Amino acid sequence: MEKNTRKNILITGGVGFIGSHVVRQFVTKYGDYHIFNLDALTYAGNLENLKDIEKAPNYTFVKGDITDADFINHLFFQNSFDGVIHLAAESHVDRSITNPLSFVRTNVLGTVNLLNASLELAKDNPNFLFYHISTDEVFGSLGKDGFFTENTSYDPNSPYSASKASSDHFVRAYGETYKLPFVISNCSNNYGPNQFPEKLIPLFINNIIQNKPLPVYGDGNYTRDWLFVKDHAKAIDLIFHEGNRGETYNVGGFNEWKNIDLTQLLCRLMDKKLNRQEGASEKLITFVKDRPGHDLRYAIDATKINQELGWKPSVTFEEGLEKTIDWYFDNQEWLDHVTSGDYLEYYKKQYQA
Ligand code: NAD
Ligand code: TYD
Q1: Per 3-state DSSP, what percentage of the chain is helix, strand, and coil (rounded to 5)?
Q2: In this structure, which of 116, 133, 151, 310 has its CB flanked by the most CB atoms within 10 Å?
């Protein structure tokens, strides 16, 4: 079986939110693999996310930047990886609006550097695989009905989604032009432990704890499809081992929520957790200026991965949210660490909290 021949694996962005769950899944499940975790430790990358496995004998952390082609070529030459699972990226839409170029650098140039280095290794290793992790945001915005399938045309609206769409195209182009074996997955919004508190769910949990306003963009009627991060990590494991080369897989939670309804649900759960009076957290909801180019609705049709690979989400939204809230309560020190410095400056500028 091909899967047993790919044991020396590079995961990029592995101390970020999703990456840390993917690294843990691989390091703990596959004791005979060696997992290299390459991460530049930007504001979003935190070594604390993997403290529990940092001493595992089948794990090596490498600090480095995917935009540095010489460094990447050297790393690939030295370690002859059998496979790459590429998650490193600038990932926050709001930051892409204020600083699009850093998204072009990391998401486009960084990906092309990894592809070039992969070509060298693929020449001598017929089982080599480049697995690119992408987002449903490349498909643009849905109206009230319908779902994104693997055949939906790309139509990105934000600098973030444009940079991810571009990187997806490069991966596919390297497959066509140079026959690089690849697979791509496009996933919906993730939530769960270790997510940097600038994205909706962890930002609002943190703000409720601190009694700060909850900035809901526009009228709050925007819809996202939420998936618990550990279910995404399991899908990535499955696609890496069983997915068909040259194909793409959509991954989603079948779990659509309007932002305002999700915010109200979070408020109710947090009131219980904090023993606050019912309705106390809802008073923090503040409607603010809308995000420019805000996509109305994302919703994934995950039939292909379900039927071909047998994947489906294992955690209900209620269970996932409770686990997430509990994690942020039990890890206030983590929250304190990541919310100092760059993040605070950014947050203050945006909302004058
Ligand atoms: P994240 O921002 O939490 O983590 C990104 C990681 O990449 C960080 O550890 C950071 O230090 C690292 N990184 C950034 N620039 C780098 C560089 N130049 N060189 C090396 N490392 C660098 O992101 P995330 O939410 O975990 O997303 C991971 C991937 O999954 C991204 O490719 C993202 O587009 C994709 N994705 C995310 C979601 C989501 O809901 N968060 C959904 C679908 C797909
Ligand atoms: P976000 O977590 O940034 O993910 P994405 O933009 O990649 O979907 O945002 C999720 C939704 O929540 C999106 O519709 C924007 C909205 N949102 C707010 O209303 N307020 C906020 O403070 C944030 C961060 C997001």
Answers
A1: 50, 15, 35
A2: 133
Q: Which two tokens stand for residue 26?
A: 């691989």
Q: Which domains does the chain have, with CATH numbers?
A: 7-192+226-255+294-315 (3.40.50.720)
Local structure of 88: helix, strand or coil: coil
Using one digit for the tens of pLDDT, what is the confidence trace for 304-333?
999 999 999 999 999 999 999 999 999 999
User: Ligand 1 in contact with 42 (CB < 6 A)?
Assistant: yes
Parallel, antiparallel or unpaired: strands 8-12 and 34-39 = parallel
| 137 is annotated as an active-site residue | yes
At 154, list the tokens.
Answer: 């790309």
CA of 296 to the centre of ligand 1 (A): 23
Question: Taking a C-beta distance cutoff of 8 angstroms, is the pair 87, 70 a contact?
Answer: no
Q: What span, in angstroms and rounded, lies between the C-alpha atoms of 139 and 148? A: 7
The structure tokens listed for 234 are 């399991």
What is residue 1's predicted lDDT score, i.e. its pLDDT?
43
Q: Return the ligand number nearest the Cα of 200.
A: 2
Four-point Cα dihedral 168, 193, 49, 243, nearest 10: -40
d(CA 262, CA 189): 13
- Judged on CB neighbours under 10 Å (0-12, 13-18, 19+), 229 is buried
Check if the beta carbon of residue 76 is closer than 8 Å to that of residue 101: no
Phi, psi of 199 (to 5 degrees): -80, 160
Going by alpha carbons, the residue nearest to atom 13 of ligand 1 is 88
Strands 83-86 and 182-187: unpaired
The DSSP H or E segment spanning 89 is none
Residue 55 CA to ligand 1 center (angstroms) comes to 23
Judge if pTM exceeds 0.90.
yes
Q: Are 142 and 194 within 8 A, CB to CB? A: no
